[in-house]
Amino acid sequence: MSATGSPTDGFSLEEKRALLAQLLREKAAKPKTFPLSFAQQRLWFLHQLQPDAPTYIICAAVRLAGRLDPAALDRAVGEVVHRHASLRTTFAVQEGQPVQVVAPARAETPPARTIDLGDMPEGARADELRRLVRGETQQPFDLERGPLMRVTLLRLGPAEHVLLLTLHHIIADGWSMSILIQEIAALYQAFRAGQPPALPELPIQYADFA
Q1: Contacts 24+ apart (CB under 8 A), 185-188
Q2: Whole-prediction pTM value?
């Protein structure tokens, strides 16, 4: 190999992709700090002014019909947190500047908080569901301590649940939420069937872009 040659000269495209995936896995195994994107800088600054304001909280409610496998759901959420570094990100100040702190990819993900509304009368249950959803949108996040995502499972009956996904806008947006829901659904089906995850590994994360 010449002095100006690339370390991957002579490798096939598949081998280069495998090497890139290995390097990314090694990188994800350690906490890392990254600069903030311009959008994150704005949201971080506004949070410093009003840390308890619920302005930038995103909450999605997903109704689940049929018998639920809670263990498969927790595994699906954990796998999505593993896949997306943004969901493992908190924000600290280093040398006077805010930075993203990304936790290791296999950091433990707590199980979804479960609230059972099944014994309540139908009318009262609907009112309590609305109250809980409103409460999620009003509960602030601590950007430094995290986590910046909350997962709550509301049991309405033996075969009826509502999954609440609540995130701070500094790590997600509306478009991200739709992807998050789709991936949780796909992973849940795989884990429930006893199959390995079928989603492809992500070659780049938001912190890399920032």
Answers
A1: 185/76, 187/75, 187/76, 187/79, 187/80, 188/69, 188/72, 188/73, 188/76
A2: 0.81
